[in-house]
Fold this protein.
Amino acid sequence: MSKIGFIGLGIMGSPMAGHLVRAGHEVTGFTLNAEALDKLEAEGGRRAGDIAAAVADAEIVITMLPNHPQVEEVVLGAEGVFAHAPKGALLIDFSTIRPESSLAVAEAGAQAGFRVLDAPVSGGQAGAEQGVLSIMVGGTESDFAAAAPIFEAVGKTWIHVGEHGAGQIVKAANQLVVGGTYALVAEAILLMEALGVDAGKGLDVLAGGLAGSRILELKRASMVAREFAPGFRIDLHHKDMGIVADAARQADIALPTGALVGSLIAAGRAQGYGSLDHSALLKVVENLNGR
Ligand code: NAD
């Protein structure tokens, strides 16, 4: 069992920290939303007043933050993880950020005497709450092996996909598929409703056939009912489609469907849905059709 400093207790980080406490780890948390620290304490973890206190005696430091500016500030900043954690600690960054930031953090870590893994996740809020996340890991084989007890507490599938940054590239591919699936499910709902067919029943059938997916399994009822509380915010998916677009440009490849999906997500943000769940792509498709 490990001493863990956990920074970023949001929609994903909060339930993940709870699983680590229940698995027997000593978890000290720091985050900007105080109620998440109350919850961590109630579950048997400890609260810290700043990053330094969260990581002071950590063997493992976990970050689950919105985007690369937060990760770079929390990890590399003057009052950050590398300035205050014991040398040799393993940093597992579960955040979704651009691959070059993961590389920069890993290189800075190596110079400062820390081991680093990029380990973005898929599975959404439900996956975090149930402890069944899919984890795509970039870094060295030995650090991947050392992190197994952590992955076991929060995930169901974890795979070492390559060197530093490779986890983020796989996550970008994941977000391409997830965004595209939501866009098509939204169009399917609208098509059925426009022709007077019960979309709930229709999606029940789709979920059992070749069109079935985890998205249909978890989200079809809330989409048909127009319930869009996050979940995974459109703002965050917009960030992720930017990572996809940058990666495609760097690789000199065209992703035409991805570009279209990225535009629909951008439209959702422009229409004021940034803090809704990404299933609110349905509202974007409805607006396009004047419905
Ligand atoms: P969130 O906004 O709910 O949580 C982020 C947390 O980081 C908040 O608790 C905030 O207080 C904390 N934070 C921000 N800046 C901080 C700082 N400087 N110091 C300390 N704490 C700070 O976001 P989330 O939905 O939990 O997503 C976190 C990451 O996981 C993102 O990169 C997201 O893309 C990714 N992700 C989210 C989901 C999902 O379904 N929500 C699924 C897979 C991956």
Observations:
- The chain has a mean pLDDT of 98.
- The pocket of nicotinamide-adenine-dinucleotide is lined by residues 7-13, 30-33, 36, 64-66, 70, 73-74, 95-96, 121-122, 124-125, 231-232, 236 (CB under 6 Å).
